[in-house]
Design a protein that fits this description.
By secondary structure, the chain is an alpha+beta fold. The protein contains one helix and four strands.
């Protein structure tokens, strides 16, 4: 199982960046589908949070998320 993790930065607060909680993808999601999901899910998140932008999106095995 894969998870999608976004690192986002605030437009209003300068270089204030943080990682969001991972988005768990469906059981049989392949890496290429996860990479495509970064575009879709990232666009949805930015639409809902207009004062932020996505600086990085990663796909990784579930349970591997660690905050930087």
């Amino acid at each position: 199982m894969l998870e999608l993790v976004f690192t986002v930065c605030s437009i209003v607060q300068g270089a204030n960046c943080h990682e969001l909680q991972p988005i768990r993808l469906q059981e049989n999601t392949m890496m290429v589908a996860c990479l495509m999901a970064t575009q879709i899910e990232g666009a949805k998140w930015v639409d809902e949070h207009p004062n932020y932008y996505v600086v990085r999106a990663t796909c990784q095995p579930a349970g591997q998320f660690t905050r930087l």
